[in-house]
């Protein structure tokens, strides 16, 4: 293998590992002397540092690890906030109501759920999964909610037409009712 191919292999190993990999382990996998691993990584570091790339190799905990550059901390933080944020059962339930019944008011959501939904609606709005899409033409003109493009992306849908039919989601004992 050429040095470039070996560097590609090292990069792939570091990426796949997600944890620091010691040079001897990398050398064992690629059947290389440890000194050559250090040299290849040093060459990779020069290229990664000089280029406007998002990744860098760091030596940590007795091994090498592929990490994002500190300059991209704010961007990575935004991603982490989105990915780490799990939805509660109440949020998923409310999101399903909005997705299938939109446009829908808070009162209609609460009528279906049987509990107050203020906090859940705020959470879903903050995560940009639902949004205000207008006002209902009725007394008090309550806010109407609908799903967002982020909702479609999050659930891998091209459009709302890709949602399953509600009848297909109900157990067979309820679908005849």
From TrEMBL:
One Pfam family it belongs to: SMC_ScpB
Gene3D superfamilies named in the record: Winged helix-like DNA-binding domain superfamily/Winged helix DNA-binding domain
Keywords: Cell cycle, Cell division, Chromosome partition, Cytoplasm
Aminoacyl-tRNA synthetase as UniProt keyword: no
Keyword Cell cycle: yes
GO biological process: cell division; chromosome separation
Domain of life: Bacteria
Name under which the protein is recorded: Segregation and condensation protein B
Organism expressing this protein natively: Sporomusa termitida
Lineage of the organism: Bacteria, Bacillati, Bacillota, Negativicutes, Selenomonadales
